[in-house]
Write a structure and sequence with these properties.
The radius of gyration is 22 Å and the shape is globular. Helix 4 (113-132) packs antiparallel against helix 5 (136-158) and helix 5 packs across helix 10 (268-293). The chain has helices at residues 2-11, 13-53, 94-98, 113-132, 136-158, 163-176, 185-210, 217-230, 235-256, 268-293. 68% of the residues lie in helices and 0% in strands. With 294 residues, the protein is an all-alpha fold. It has ten helices and no strands.
Length: 294
């Protein structure tokens, strides 16, 4: 069955790309749920863990009853009027366009982020499919791409990179490279160690010199994730691109948006974008960079 499907995809590229686009659009809709609900699930868990840990100190303070929430329940509703979103109102991009970007009941605006995330997932999915063709690498990179979209948006919204996403994909990177899917396993293991260890050392050096924390531990894990997927050789290129873009954005925010110089800026999105680019075109970029230096 799988071999027959591969043959069909290979023989009919348009069908292959259409399936990738539809799948990515559907997953993109789910990513909007992940980005919104996962931080709330984490906050709920933290609250009850703290209550349990500080049980004696908080004995006289009644606990808040936080609503149950998961990635599947409760059903999606309008944030303004709680109108249940029907399946035909949740078709990626199309429903948003048909509804004019407004709730069908209360007519409040629906954020443009929803169709943008769905469209971005589809576009990036097509780029991955075109790059790797009909292969297991395409499927693996699709999963990683969707995870990076979620991490980027969660970090922008909440300044956190959830272990629930980074750690499974770190281990997946090592697993898929057992047979050298992207890089030899030895390079992947060294890459994961070098990714985490390098930012860990930079973090403590910066803290010792400035008495401030320059980044979060989630950034270490994300960098380690990329090390597990691409090996250690391309990590310098990745961090160089991420730092350059981060510096440009940070300076721009200070100049044009009046941000305080001491205001924290999430580094995860720059790592995610630079890492995704490095996986696809890192070897070519690195070769061009080295030839330019020579």
């Amino acid at each position: 069955m799988l071999n027959e499907l591969i043959e069909v995809f290979t023989a009919y590229p348009v069908f292959f790309y259409s399936c990738i686009a539809i799948l990515s659009l559907t997953v993109g809709s789910f990513l909007n749920v992940v980005v919104y609900r996962l931080p709330k699930m984490m906050e709920r868990s933290w609250y009850y863990e703290c209550r349990e840990y500080l049980a004696d100190e908080l004995n006289d303070i009644p606990a808040k009853t936080l609503p149950e929430i998961s990635l599947s329940k409760p059903n999606s509703t309008c944030p303004s009027c709680s109108h249940p979103i029907r399946f035909y109102e949740n078709i990626p991009i199309i429903s948003w366009l048909v509804l004019g970007g407004k709730c069908s009941q209360c007519k409040q605006k629906i954020s443009k982020r929803y169709p943008l995330v769905e469209g971005s997932a589809a576009l990036l999915g097509l780029i991955v499919a075109q790059h790797y063709g009909v292969s297991i690498a395409t499927l693996l990179m699709l999963f990683l791409t969707w995870a990076l979209i979620s991490l980027t948006l969660i970090d922008l919204d909440h300044m956190i990179l959830p272990d629930q996403i980074t750690m499974p994909f770190l281990w997946l990177g090592l697993l898929v490279n057992i047979n050298g899917t992207f890089v030899p396993l030895s390079d992947a293991v060294i890459g994961a160690m070098a990714g985490y260890g390098s930012l860990f050392c930079i973090f403590w050096l910066f803290k010792l010199l400035t008495k401030k924390e320059g980044m979060g531990f989630g950034d270490f894990k994300l960098f380690a994730l990329f090390g597990a997927w691409i090996g250690w050789q391309l990590l310098p290129l990745l961090i160089l691109m991420a730092s350059a873009v981060g510096a440009i954005v940070g300076i721009s925010l200070i100049i044009f948006k009046g941000h305080n110089k001491g205001q924290a800026i999430p580094f995860g999105p720059y790592l995610a974008v630079a890492g995704w680019i490095t996986i696809l075109w890192g070897d070519n970029i690195w070769s061009w960079y080295l030839s330019y230096l020579v």
